[in-house]
Design a protein that fits this description.
Elements: H1 5-14, H2 27-35, E1 54-57, E2 62-65, E3 68-71, H3 74-85, E4 91-92, H4 93-100, H5 109-126, E5 131-135, E6 139-143, E7 149-151
Parallel strand pairs: 1-7
Antiparallel strand pairs: 1-2, 2-3, 4-6, 5-6
Helix pairs in contact: 3-5
């Protein structure tokens, strides 16, 4: 407990990673924090699912958009899941090969390109606005028009 912001920063740096840390300016501030009535956290409301949202069901290895559903192979599922984790990021061939095939040695671009071609076809069947764009010489990225969600639908 210290009123000086500089001193609080110094204490935080000294105790970083040791234990949970609560820095307050004075006893009144501490009392307010301790005496505050605790309310149970509100249950997170499930976001409304519109018909044009891509849902990836990890347990069933399927992708769904509206009333359409396609089955995914393990490789297709892993690639789509990988791309949806950071939709705007450009994933290199090496990163995709490592994430999908889990193999550091074989890094053939043709494997990734073939898998992307099959997955694009399935995304088209779903009628979703989600596309996989090639970034010449680098890899692929997901163009995410509806913010796909991963989960057990």
């Amino acid at each position: 407990m210290t009123p000086s912001p500089a001193e609080r920063i110094r204490l935080a740096e000294l105790l970083d990673g040791v234990a949970p840390l609560l820095l307050v300016a004075d006893l009144d501030e501490l009392r307010k924090l301790i005496a505050a009535p605790r309310q149970p956290p509100a249950a997170p409301a499930a976001p409304p699912v519109s018909d044009d949202v891509l849902l990836i069901d990890a347990t069933r290895s399927t992708a769904r958009c509206g009333d359409r559903k396609v089955d995914l192979t393990r490789l297709e599922h892993d690639l789509l899941t990988c791309l949806t984790t950071e939709p705007v990021r450009v994933w290199s061939y090496t990163e995709l090969h490592r994430s999908v095939w889990r193999d550091e040695r074989l890094q053939r671009k043709a494997d990734v390109q073939s898998l992307v071609k099959r997955l694009r076809r399935k995304l088209t069947q779903l009628g979703t606005g989600v596309t996989i764009d090639a970034v010449r010489g680098v890899g692929f990225r997901l163009t995410d028009h509806q913010h796909p969600r991963v989960g057990g639908a």
